[in-house]
Each structure stands twice: as structure tokens, then as C-alpha cells.
Amino acid sequence: MFKLILSDPSIFKTSFEAISSIVDEVQIEVDSDGLRLNAIDRSHITFVHLDLKESLFDIFQCDKPIKLNIDTEELMKVLKRSKSDDVMELTVDGGNLIVTFEGEVKKTFKVKLIDLEYDTPTPPSIEYPVKISIPIGTLKETIQDIEIVADRVEFNINQDVLKLKAVGEFADAEVEYLHGEKVLETVKAVFAIENIKEMLKAEKFADNTYIALGNDMPLTLTLELLNEEGELSFLLAPRIEEE
Amino acid sequence: MFKLILSDPSIFKTSFEAISSIVDEVQIEVDSDGLRLNAIDRSHITFVHLDLKESLFDIFQCDKPIKLNIDTEELMKVLKRSKSDDVMELTVDGGNLIVTFEGEVKKTFKVKLIDLEYDTPTPPSIEYPVKISIPIGTLKETIQDIEIVADRVEFNINQDVLKLKAVGEFADAEVEYLHGEKVLETVKAVFAIENIKEMLKAEKFADNTYIALGNDMPLTLTLELLNEEGELSFLLAPRIEEE
Amino acid sequence: MFKLILSDPSIFKTSFEAISSIVDEVQIEVDSDGLRLNAIDRSHITFVHLDLKESLFDIFQCDKPIKLNIDTEELMKVLKRSKSDDVMELTVDGGNLIVTFEGEVKKTFKVKLIDLEYDTPTPPSIEYPVKISIPIGTLKETIQDIEIVADRVEFNINQDVLKLKAVGEFADAEVEYLHGEKVLETVKAVFAIENIKEMLKAEKFADNTYIALGNDMPLTLTLELLNEEGELSFLLAPRIEEE
User: Fold this and answer.
1) Does the N terminus or the C terminus of chain A have fewer Cβ atoms within 10 A?
2) Complex-level ipTM
3) Least CB-CB distance to A109: which of B141, B172, B176?
């Protein structure tokens, strides 16, 4: 018996906005604890991890662990058709994931599961010297500020501010955000703006957003649901700048 | 003497949104009863019928019957420049239809009438086994749901629901709408989504929308103004699916 | 010492929306009276003049006159990143104009000043027989009305109305606006719609908009801030129509 019911499809929708822009195919694992996925893009630049606890769902029935291999673009087309006040149901029938949205009308989509040799990548475990929180909307706008001058951005965190900066051909840009956290050292690393924008497509997942950083280390961006009912995190490889 | 005044141009605007996407040229007939047009697209797939009674107009002066042949795209460009609180006036001057919108400013457009051999197609009269009503906004959204998997849609009406469905390469879709009408048999027919979307451009014409259907018969979609002051209807040929 | 602070960047933003669509490079002159620029486009069709008095600024420090040569497109990219509730600061550092927006975050952009042989064009001084005022939003919409039939527009002012008109291939258009001013003669001139649309990009500069016109004379469009704290004006060469 496999049946998940969620009264707000928007967590799924916003997660897959980001996921489908990073990876073409993904393996969703479901067991009695919840639903999760780990994936890495072809170029091994972005690692993405989604974890939704069974307590988040209105109904969560999963007798035995199941793996669902799915084309993220096809699933995204379906999720886009949901409204925030629809009730979403996920079931499996033969080779299909059945996605139902029930609101004013009842919409049923059968999305073909795909054959996939999938070596689930292991989520890297990294110890970071610095961790701060920032509203995701602020981060998104800041990235758009930097984007007008360059396609790479330096993240620089010191004891007072998160500084995003870039040097362009015709102009330089620098944005400072007072983070208000206890930070003891200064760290910096450079990333491709394009990759950061992919992650930020999940902006509706949560207000609670965390950035973890170290010198020339990967960036970890974590979005957390309330009551620890779920988490979406990204780990982005740094660009090593030629001096 | 020919002069029509209508205090809300939006009925004309939304009608011609649909009409101009279906036919390039049209003959508008006006006599003392009102204004009407009948037209069929080049491929003979969609028949469109517009009927606006003289009682709908604030002023309706038409001494003798008149036929106005017009390029629908040119007329649409003009109608788009109207605002819902403008007063629209239609008159004729030599070879031109004069369209005036009076609001904060007074806008006068002269649209050239065209030479046209026009055999007015006769509105087909079809007896349908099944007829239901549906809010046009709901129908529009449902078509957008189906469109993500295919370019054709099966309309299927049984005693409880209107079901729209399609089988796609990567996913299938099915949307159910509880119609709440007395329907005694099940009927179905398949249509091209592109043609349905053309008709739905007239969505602002009326909330009262009716669908008439029979097995492999054309679809009739009718939008009716209050007090029987006007009607816009479409008749769409079915696609016969190869099994 | 050079430092200008303005509590609303939108006057700059809307000015340069228009200026950057007319000229690629511009020389901004600042002295103790305020900031101004005079520029003319490559084809010598549009002359633009901006004048912001020192009293408009929250802080205005300018010890000695300074000339800032700048690429308008690069500056516009930066100004687009401002929000209306940001505080804008302009300073100069070596070869850069430093533009700072301070709101929820602090954004600092360094825009490279350019080498430019710049012969400041002298603002032409023209005596006009007719001058009226019109809300800029109304003028903008009227131009969009005319644009559906042609790419040139005749401005025609008589004692009662400003009439904008054009004759097209398939339709003619004429829009009348009651100006309510004392006008003693009738004047008309023809302009390219494209050039008028460039000027109208500054629509947020001011509600007070004035049009000055004479027979086959240039059009002067003037936008004035309250309390004579600033002015943005355009002078547009007429098109002489072949009869």
C-alpha cells in the first residue's frame, strides 16, 4: 500500500522548480520515515537533497520501501498544474506515479516511471567554520544585483556582514547584508551565479534559510520547514578563480 | 442612418479575440433586429456565430440592412485600444467602419471595409443527446491541464461528470468536473486543443457557458448574455482518432 | 568633496530610462547649483536636457564643478537595481562613479567613468506659439492608440483640443484631448512615434507635463518637479512629410 496525501502541493512544486533545473532524472525513495532524494548534476557542481518527514503528510501510507525513478521535467509540468488550495495525492500504479490534485475539479496525472541505473550519491558531510541565516528573498535579490556586472560572485562572510561582490568589465558591485550572527572568522569563496539561481528557484520552500561557508569551500544552502518536518539543501562547488 | 452605441466595448473585444484567431475576414450583418455574423475557418473545422440583439445597445439605429466586410485582425487591433469604461460608437462612412471610443479622450478609428465575395455559411442545426453547463474559466484551466501531455483531448460526459482526458508519450492526464445536470447517456468525442483554445479567447463574453456533445459529433460551445441579449457560439469538428 | 544624497532614486531611474534609450554616452555636470546634462542623439533628432537643483537633494556637497562622462546603458543597469524606498548616494572615486543604495541591504556599484571628447550641445531656445499641459499617462496611451495604424503621428493643437492623428494602410486613427488652455491659433507638425516613445520612458518623473508646438516646428516636451526643484525636457525634430 502506497499512498501519500499532502494538503498543500506548493512544497513539492517549489522543490522541483529547483531540482528539475539541476538534474534531468532523479530517484525518490520512500519508506515509513518519509520521502527523500539525493541527486547530483551531470557536471558534479550541485548536490541536492530533499527530505520530507512522514509527519508533514496528512496521510502517509508506505508498507515497504519504494524507489521511484522519474524524469524531473515531466513531473514539473504536472506539479505546475496544481493550485495551493488543492489536495495532492501520490500513489503508484504499475509503471506510473499517479499524481492527483483535488480542488474545484479533480485532476489525475499518470507520470511514467523510468528505468534508471541509479547510484544514489551520498550526501557529503562537511564541517563549516561559518553559518548564518538570511531571508531567501533577500539573497535572491542580492544575486540579481551582482548579476548585472558579472557571472560569478564572491561570498564573503565576516563577523558583521555577508558581502556579495563581483568585479565586472564596466562596473563593480558589492552588496552587504548585516547577518546578526556570531561569526569569529572571515571566509570567502566564489560561485557561478547561474548555479545559485537554480537553487533559489526553491524560494517558496521555507523562510528559514541557512548559508554555511568556508574559504574556497562549497556553499551549503539549507531551507528548513517548521517543526523539522522537512528540509531541502544544496551543496554547490566553488569556482577557483585564476589570479 | 447607421449608428450603434454600446456603453461597454468589452463584449465586442472578447468576441473578436476569438473570431480573429479563427477567421481572417468576416461579414457582419446588421438590421433592425441586431447585429450578427456567421463564419467558418479555412479548414472548415470551426464555425463561429455571433448574435447581439438591438436591445443590448444603448442606441441602435439601422434604417436598412447593411453588410460590413472586415479584416478581423485590423478590427481587433482597434478593439484592443478600448477600455471597459469607454463608450463605443459604430458608424459607417463611405468605405470605412468608424469605431469611436469615448472616455478620458475621444478615439476615432476608421477601419477600411474590404471587398469580399462572402457566402454566409448557414449555422448548422444539430440535435445533441447531451448538454451541460460549465464556468468558462474552469474549462480553460482544464484544457491547460490536458495540454501538458498531448495536443488532442477527449471530451467524455457521463451522468455525473465531464471528463477531459488525453494519453501522452510521457504522461497521461484526466480531469473530472461534476456537472450536476441530468445526463442519461455517456458520450465522447476528440478535439484538437489548439482549436478549443481559440474559442476560449472569448472567455469574458459570459459566465453562462454551455457544452453540447454526442458520440464523435462536433462540440458546440455556447456563451450567452443575460436576458437573451446576445450569444456567441462555436461549433468544432471532432478529430476521428485512428485506433 | 563630492557627495550627493537623494532619498528617492526613482527620479534618476525614470530620467535615465529615457536618456539611455536616446544617447549612449552623456556628460553629467555638477556644480554648487545642482546637476545637469545636455545631450543629443547621433542622428540629431532628439535633444535631452536634465536639470536637478541642489535643493532637491538631502545632502548636496560639491566643492568644485565636476564633469562625469558616463555610459548611459551601464548606469541604467545599476539604477534599475534601486528600490523607491532606498536612499541613493553618489560619490566619485578615482575613475569611478560610486552609486550606493541603502535599504534592507547596502548595495554599492562602481561605474567606470569614460574618456569622452564631449562638446556639450547648447539647449536650443525656441519661441513657441502654443503651449499646453497634458498628463503624461494620457499622452503615452494616445501614442499607443496611433501606433496601431502608423509609425508617424501628426500633433495638431487648436483652441479646444490636442489632436493626434495618423493615416494607415488599413485604418486611420485620431485621438482628441480637451486641453482646457487658452490657445489662439492652430498648429501642427509630424513626428516619428519611435522617438516619442523614447521620451515617454521618463513618465514617472512628474505629473506636470507640457507640450510646446508650432507649425512644422520641433516638439518640446517638458516634465517639471514640484517647487522648481528639477526639470527634464526633450526637443524632438519634426518629420517633414512628402505630400
Assistant:
1) C
2) 0.91
3) B172
